[in-house]
Design brief:
The complex is a heterodimer of chains A (765) and B (176).
Chain A: H1 44-48, E1 64-70, E2 76-82, H2 84-88, E3 92-96, E4 129-130, E5 136-142, H3 145-152, E6 156-161, H4 168-171, E7 187-190, H5 193-199, E8 202-210, E9 222-228, E10 231-236, H6 241-252, E11 259-262, H7 277-289, E12 293-296, H8 299-305, E13 312-320, E14 326-337, H9 349-353, E15 357-368, H10 382-400, H11 404-410, H12 428-439, E16 451-453, E17 456-468, E18 476-482, E19 487-490, H13 500-512, E20 519-522, H14 539-562, E21 576-579, E22 582-585, E23 592-594, H15 595-601, E24 606-612, H16 617-621, E25 625-637, E26 643-653, H17 660-679, E27 710-715, H18 738-750
Helix pairs in contact in A: 10-18, 13-14, 17-18
Chain B: E1 2-5, E2 8-11, H1 20-27, E3 46-49, E4 52-55, E5 68-70, H2 83-90, H3 100-115, H4 135-141, H5 152-165
Helix pairs in contact in B: 2-5
The chains are: A alpha+beta (765), B alpha+beta (176).
Organism (chain B): Azospirillum oryzae
Protein name (chain B): Xanthine dehydrogenase YagT iron-sulfur-binding subunit
Domain 2Fe-2S ferredoxin-type (chain B): 1-75
């Protein structure tokens, strides 16, 4: 499909000058200015001084501290709950249990309504029933943190256990098929893939397993909450502000505008900083005690009540002709979930869009367990799905005696393999070629165990990275222009370190033709125009859509204010552009008037415009994804089985890059989390008790400095013609493909295929 | 209890059970020092005590009376950032910024350890007269400070640049 430019588009239903998703292109697509520059984070000076204020750092008069006690059984009823010692302990203000907690509505599952933010739909501390090992059974409020922690340790509980499913092997005997996987069908079948597999000249058919992971943002989950009458104020660490405010209003029976949630800074999110029990319990306890409350979970508390990525068991089967072309692509499997949440870990999503195959079968199921609700964690589905798929591709390449990049070149599709839609912009092979040249892929010996440095075997591996583009509707942006030429753009979005505020300041400067120093980007507060969530790598494009719409209104308003005495007289939105702190005719440099002049002449101190983003029609019309090629070199000790990643390169095709510095950090951060996924990370779930046994940062090993090599980042920087600013999301793609790139390198080094993450020493001995 | 914090003497009444971290954050308002695990595994709470880096979550406040404590608030100020703070901004040595105060204090303490020729587990020659500072030494010595955003490479670039520019012994009180 050829793209129409906005000026060429004259069909009856178009609005001249407006961005119409899937019909016209964002006029910013090829404009540069501040966009793309490696601007340092605008909140950097605050952060390095320790002045960025996080959720647990807002002072209140009369503040008390909360501590939680947790259940020690996976399922059952509380038969005795002795809180007398806790209540009598020094400084204790309140002990709240299901017996005295205020009546609250249960949360609604995220995505079940426009205000739902529940990670599960279980009622919170409303009855004596226990649903997972680690469920909060009591909240203690005290004058000091030490007093609260001590008193919480004095709470005693007895339980009448109920039968609990805490073994995945047991749970998967009764699999359940969901009616959809994040809105997509749970089963996709094109042709008879099983028959095609059997008939294929070359076959790979393997099971891959990935364990539970935890986000483990370094900031512990925290909230400072205060009631004033029926108004609730929440300082939170949060990546879905408006949903959280709406959900809290629903839980406590308040009008939505009575709840204000803010999160100017979030100490890492990765999908974990959403609405969990602690904020709800803190609000309830604050209400009961009539005091402001601060809650900060312990690290163990994070493991007990904030869900992580669930485990997966995946089958990938590939049938190919001797030329490598796929006759059959099968990706099926099962993940652990609960009956009270909906997070199916969409591991079959990469296979829906990556490779051409004559027949395809994709299917995923869930196995219900009695456990803490699992949730979205950086590239849910794609991070672990690409591990299985990209290892299998590597295995197939070896059987075909083909270079794995050459194999991918041969199975590169022309249109989306399952939807049939055209790609908006796809340069995966380009990313492979650039990455391979830079990494020195030609020095890889396809035969394993051929490079050695003393006890260390050295190998190289590669894998495809992929993550979908998505733009959420419903977000709005407000532009305020002052007579002095200052621009403030406001929307209730989030910067958890992704660089949102910096990239958007660059975007606004470029979009409105003003210096970046004149731009303020306001975010992180539900009193601002409704924002979108920070999830699914969607925020940048979603904000982009809202800012485009607001900027169109802004220009139209200014044209009206300019009136007939302006050089702009008679011009319409389609005929003008913003430049040099004002508006000018697109083709006539002499027709220009500055913002300041327009406001001055119209006697205005300021102009305020607000608009909502147009619906994401581009997602309906096109297959839109980011891509990447991950290259890894490992050294594996033949004596200990220890794996060290010695070099890494990520080559990405993620559309237009808005800030070279912060984007590179996003890619590297994803890759580093991927190194943890590949080599060390696993939340160990005791199948007897259903309890996480390594609930600490000492026992759950996230990558440290010493685990991280030099990492090089390349990107195509080719604007996606369908995306605002030409930019697709970059927050999650970095982690995808890393597990497979490492595993494939380990195979190249040692000749051992490890299909069960993490690749720990024991598996290589 | 009496302390010297960032050069100022401070007197405060506190629970004898308070960690230095909780005392700094909750009783004294030095919230620049962060809590990430409260058990010595993440390094977010790192402060300098008489020039040496410690995990303030593992330190009972009462034991640090009379000692000189430096937190991130004592390193630099608006318009007058410490060279290491500026280098962290320049090299994007953070994303969310939560582990950053601990990284900064830890790096300054580490520089002193290197200057005093204290070897690390990767130091080839424990008897050497001077420790050779390379990337591997820095990575090993900074491995007690976790960064989940994964800004590790920017952190090493920032520390290397600052070490090249100024002697370790001047770093604690240095400002740009």
């Amino acid at each position: 499909m050829s793209m129409q430019s906005d000026s060429a588009n004259t069909s009856a239903n178009t609005l001249p000058g407006r961005w119409q998703p899937a019909v016209t292109q964002d006029p910013m697509l090829h404009k540069h200015g501040a966009l793309g520059q490696p601007v340092s984070r605008i909140d950097g000076p605050l952060k390095v001084q320790g002045k960025a204020q996080f959720a647990a750092e807002f002072p209140y008069e009369g503040l008390c501290y909360a501590a939680l006690a947790f259940s020690t059984v996976a399922r059952g009823r509380i038969t005795a709950l002795d809180t007398a010692a806790a209540e009598a302990a020094p400084g204790v203000v309140l002990v709240m249990t299901h017996r005295n907690a205020p009546r609250m509505k249960a949360p609604s599952l995220m995505m079940s309504s426009p205000t739902a933010a529940g990670a599960s739909d279980l009622p919170v501390m409303q009855d004596d029933e226990i649903h997972w090992n680690g469920q909060p059974i009591a909240v203690v409020l005290a004058e000091t943190l030490e007093q609260a922690d001590h008193a919480a340790s004095l709470v005693r509980a007895d339980y009448a256990p109920l039968p609990a499913v805490t073994s995945f092997d047991e749970a998967k005997k009764t699999p359940r098929q969901l009616d959809n996987i994040l809105g997509q069908p749970p089963v996709v079948e094109i042709g008879d893939a099983e028959a095609a597999l059997k008939a294929a000249a070359v076959q790979v058919d393997q099971i891959y397993r990935t364990p539970r992971h935890n986000h483990n943002a370094i900031e512990l989950h925290a909230a400072t909450v205060a009631w004033t009458g029926d108004e609730l104020r929440v300082h939170d660490a949060n990546q879905l502000l408006d949903l959280t405010a709406g959900q809290l209003a629903d839980i406590f029976g308040l009008e939505p505008d009575k709840v204000r949630v803010s999160s100017p800074f979030v100490g890492g999110g990765f999908g974990g900083k959403c609405l969990w029990d602690h904020q709800i319990l803190a609000c309830a306890a604050a209400k009961l005690a009539g005091r402001p409350v601060r809650i900060m979970l312990s690290r163990e508390g994070v493991f007990r009540i904030v869900g992580g990525r669930t485990l997966t068991e995946q089958r990938v089967a590939l049938g190919a002709g001797t030329d490598g072309r796929l006759d059959a692509l099968i990706h099926t499997g099962i993940v652990a979930m609960t009956t009270h949440n909906s997070c199916p870990e969409q591991f079959t999503f990469p296979a829906r869009h990556l490779y051409a195959a004559k027949s395809i079968r994709l299917a995923q199921e869930v196995a219900d367990m009695d456990m803490l609700a699992n949730t979205f964690m950086r590239a849910p589905g794609e991070s672990v799905g690409t591990f299985a798929l990209e290892c299998a591709i590597d295995e197939l390449a070896e059987k075909l005696s083909l270079d794995p990049i050459e194999l991918r070149r041969r199975i590169e599709p022309e249109t989306d393999p399952t939807s049939g839609k055209p790609f908006s912009s796809r340069h995966l092979i380009d990313a492979y070629d650039k990455g391979a040249a830079r990494f020195g892929w030609d020095r890889r010996n396809p035969k394993p165990r051929q490079r050695r440095d003393g006890e260390w075997l050295i190998g190289m591996g590669c894998a495809t990275a992929t993550y979908p583009y998505h733009r959420f509707p419903g977000g709005a942006a407000r532009i305020r222009l002052t007579a002095g030429g200052q621009v403030t753009v406001s929307t209730a979005v989030h910067d958890m370190g992704m660089g949102t505020a910096t990239a958007q300041a660059q975007h606004i400067a470029a979009r409105l033709g003003v210096p970046i120093g004149n731009v303020t980007f306001e975010y992180g507060d539900t009193t601002l125009p409704r924002g979108v969530i920070a999830g699914g790598s969607t925020q940048t494009a979603s904000i982009g859509g809202a800012v485009i719409a607001a900027a169109e209104v802004f220009v139209e308003e200014l044209l009206k204010l300019a009136g007939n005495d302006s050089p702009l007289a008679g011009l319409s939105l389609a005929e003008v552009e913003t430049r040099d702190g004002g508006i000018g005719h697109r083709e006539d440099a002499s027709r220009f008037e500055s913002y300041e002049s327009i406001l001055r002449r119209s006697g205005r101190d300021e102009l305020v415009c607000e608009a909502e983003a147009p619906p994401p029609a581009e997602m309906e019309a096109f297959s839109m994804h980011s891509y990447g090629a991950q290259f890894c070199e490992v050294r594996v000790s033949e004596i200990t089985g220890e794996v060290r990643v010695s070099r890494f390169l990520g080559s990405f095709d993620a559309g237009r890059i808005l800030n070279a510095k912060t984007a590179t950090s996003q890619f590297k951060g994803g890759i580093i989390m991927g190194i943890g996924l590949a080599l060390t990370e696993e939340a160990n779930f005791d199948p007897r008790s259903g309890r996480i046994v390594n609930a600490s940062l000492a026992d759950y090993h996230v990558p440290v400095q010493m685990d991280v090599p030099a990492i090089e980042i390349l990107y195509t920087d080719i604007p996606d013609p369908q995306a605002p600013m030409g930019a697709r999301g970059i927050g999650e793609i970095g982690i995808t493909g890393v597990g497979a790139a490492v595993a494939n390198a380990v195979y190249n080094a040692t000749g051992k295929r490890i299909r069960d993450l993490p690749i720990t020493l024991d598996k290589l001995m | 209890m009496n302390f010297t914090i960032n050069g100022q003497s401070v007197e405060v009444e506190a629970d004898i059970r308070s960690s230095l971290l909780d005392l700094l954050r909750n009783s004294l308002g030095f919230t620049g020092t962060k809590k990430g695990c409260d058990q010595g595994a993440c390094g977010a709470c790192t402060v300098l005590v008489d020039g040496e880096r410690i995990n303030s979550c593992l330190a009972l406040a009462v034991q640090y009376q009379g000692r000189s404590i430096t937190t991130v608030e004592g390193l630099g100020s608006d318009g007058n950032l410490h060279p290491l703070q500026q280098a962290f901004v320049d090299h994007d040595g953070f994303q969310c910024g939560y582990c950053t105060p601990g990284q900064l204090c830890s790096a300054i303490g580490m520089a002193r350890e290197i200057e005093r020729n204290i070897p690390s587990v990767v130091t080839a020659d424990f008897m050497a007269v001077s420790v050779t500072v390379d990337e591997r030494e820095l990575r090993e010595r900074m491995s007690g400070n976790l960064c989940r955003c994964g800004a590790y490479n920017g952190i090493i670039e920032a520390i290397s640049e600052t070490l090249e520019k100024m002697p370790a012994s001047t770093q604690e009180r240095a400002r740009a």
